[in-house]
């Protein structure tokens, strides 16, 4: 466990899954949560880009949200708005992330949030269909990171069509810069 993982973790939550010839670390408590390695990547993006407003679609129970929050905390800058349509998950995420003042968890569909239009960095991890809708409204200059290009052919196609960078490892990550 590295230092970021220690910060991110519930105690004893890491498990391993073989995928694509490599090991990826998954969470025992939420099968839908992004790989630990994707949390590392998100944390790194936030540290490098130092965005003022970070937006996440698909909070789940808050694992990737925590990586985004911790990046902002380390930057001494930035707040995170995250949207989740499932009320039970919102409640779990509120418990998990309650200690942080720089996050707002909204129980609404991500594409309806005005913060999405204004965000500098977006992590799109909602339903596969919603992700294209979300891309449509982000502002020029924003970096849009979308999960699951290896899990969804439609998401993979979307990234290619918009000339994004495809990191086809694990569940896969697409990276797009809005022009
Ligand atoms: C893959 S999970 C999110 C996992 C989380 N980002 C993580 O890695 O810990 C996708 C979540 O998106 C939520 N969701 C689906 N459609 C949504 C939408 N339109 N807006 C916001 N959340 C949505 C689902 O309820 C589900 O909890």
Tags for this model:
alpha/beta, 179 residues, 38% helix, Rossmann fold, binds S-adenosylmethionine, 24% strand
**CATH architecture heading:** 3-Layer(aba) Sandwich
Count of helical stretches: 7
Strand order of the largest sheet: 5-4-3-6-7-9-8
Number of domains: 1
* The CATH C-level class name: Alpha Beta
Share of β-strand residues:
15-25%
**Rg computed from alpha carbons, rounded to a whole number of angstroms:** 15 Å
CATH topology: Rossmann fold
CATH homologous superfamily (4th level) name: Vaccinia Virus protein VP39
Major β-sheet profile? 7 strands, mixed
Order of helices and strands: HEEHEHEHEHEHEHEE
What ligand molecules are bound, each kind once?
S-adenosylmethionine
Q: State the share of residues found in helices, binned by percent.
A: 25-40%
Query: Averaging pLDDT over every residue, what do you get?
Result: 92
Give me the count of strands. Answer: 9
Main structural class: alpha/beta
Task: Name the shape in a single word.
Answer: globular
Gap between N and C termini? 38 Å
């Amino acid at each position: 466990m590295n230092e970021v993982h220690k910060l991110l973790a519930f105690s004893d939550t890491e498990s391993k899954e073989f995928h694509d010839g490599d090991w990826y670390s998954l969470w025992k408590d939420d099968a839908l949560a992004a790989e630990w390695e994707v949390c590392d990547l998100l944390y790194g993006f936030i540290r490098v880009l130092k965005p003022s407003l970070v937006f996440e679609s698909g909070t789940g129970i808050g694992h990737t949200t925590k990586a985004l929050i911790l990046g902002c905390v380390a930057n001494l800058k930035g707040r995170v708005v995250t949207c989740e349509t499932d009320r039970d998950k919102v409640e779990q995420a509120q418990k998990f992330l309650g200690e942080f003042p720089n996050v707002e968890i909204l129980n609404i569909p991500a594409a309806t949030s005005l913060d999405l239009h204004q965000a500098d960095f977006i992590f799109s991890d909602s339903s596969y269909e919603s992700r294209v809708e979300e891309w449509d409204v982000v502002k020029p200059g924003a970096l849009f990171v979308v999960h699951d290009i290896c899990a969804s052919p439609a998401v993979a196609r979307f990234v290619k069509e918009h000339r994004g960078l495809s990191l086809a490892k694990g569940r896969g990550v697409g990276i797009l810069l809005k022009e």
